[in-house]
Amino acid sequence: MECISASRSASCVARADPRRRDTVLLLHGSGGSGSLWRHMSAALEPLYRCLAPDLLGYGTSLAWPAGVAFGLEAERVALEPRLDCCTDRLHVVGYSYGGVVALHLALARPGRVRTLALIEPVFFHALAYASEWRAFSRFQHVRDEFLHALENGNHEAAMGSFVGFWTGNGTWSGLSALARHEMLQHADKIALDWQAAFAFQPDRDALESLGPRTLLIRGDRSPTPMLQLVDALHRIMPGSTRVIVNGANHLVPLTHPTQLTGAVLAHLHVDAERSMR
């Protein structure tokens, strides 16, 4: 889950160009917006049509109605109208919460998704499938601590523990007052993101079938449970490619955009070569 909110912008960072054949859909993490992808969109645009929408409750998207059941399917349904401009197959890139949304989309529409790039996706049940129970329990504890603080009306404590887990203790207090204020506005949606991600338990065989078209990316300084999650997912999805970004933590799209973009471009290049054979 993304912890530092990118500045808000239009929901589609890169405008669709109907003359281009392939479309890359870029999905941000919790607390962020489509503007996270400015660097990658600029690099990809000479070759691809890029779409970087705001997920539900973030940026310019509408908030999810209080008291209405929520899950990853709601994110997919909200995305579908934005994909009407793209009749071709999609390359989907997802970061953190956006990674699990991307995976859900690929499983729901496998014929539509040509390649998949998942950057530290919060697909928690990958750990359960791999019997990595200690790491799975650690994520449960972080979720429960966050939700408990919210239930007691302490949004500040909820966000402080959330940001601290992903980026290190003391990060929350080091943010500007404006940044903390913006993130606090997203606390209730982040709670829904936690719940939707934990509820996601796809079929193992379906996951395996996506392996050859999937790129998995993680830093080497992310929280240990996340390192274990990505590595477990790599084993669960035979044929997947794993890239480790040295010196990066969970904020890899913000801190290492050049390395991240290079990895995604290489993945797309391999797919392009494969399709020409």
What does this structure look like?
- With 277 residues, the protein is α/β, with parallel strands linked by helices.
- The protein has a domain at 23-132 and 199-276: Alpha/Beta hydrolase fold, catalytic domain (Rossmann fold, 3-Layer(aba) Sandwich).
- Helices cover 48% and strands 12% of the residues.
- It has helices at residues 38-44, 72-79, 97-108, 125-129, 133-151, 155-167, 171-174, 177-184, 187-199, 204-210, 224-236, 252-255, 257-276; strands at residues 23-27, 49-51, 90-95, 113-119, 214-219, 241-245.
- A six-stranded parallel β-sheet has the order 2-1-3-4-5-6, with helices on both faces.
- α5 runs antiparallel to α6.
- The termini are far apart.
- The model is unreliable at 2-20 (pLDDT under 50).
What's the short story on this structure?
With 277 residues, the protein is an alpha/beta fold. 48% of the residues lie in helices and 12% in strands.
Keywords, separated by commas or semicolons:
13 helices; Rossmann fold; alpha/beta; 6 strands; disordered N terminus; single chain
- Biggest beta sheet summary: 6 strands, parallel
Query: Which percent range fits the helix content?
Result: 40-55%
CATH superfamily of the domain at 23-132 and 199-276: Alpha/Beta hydrolase fold, catalytic domain
> DSSP helix count?
13
CATH architecture of the domain at 23-132 and 199-276: 3-Layer(aba) Sandwich
What general form does the structure show?
globular
- Our measurement of the CA-to-CA distance between the termini, rounded to an integer number of angstroms, reads 37 Å
Q: Whole-number average pLDDT?
A: 90
Count of individual beta strands: 6
* Structure classification: alpha/beta
Q: Which residues sit in consecutive blocks of at least 5 with pLDDT less than 50?
A: 2-20
Q: Provide the succession of SSEs.
A: EHEHEHEHHHHHHHEHEHH
Query: What portion of the residues fall into strands of 2 or more residues?
Result: 5-15%
Question: Rg from C-alpha positions?
Answer: 17 Å
Biggest sheet: strands side by side, in what order? 2-1-3-4-5-6
Give the CATH topology of the domain at 23-132 and 199-276.
Rossmann fold
Under CATH at level 1, the class of the domain at 23-132 and 199-276 stands as: Alpha Beta
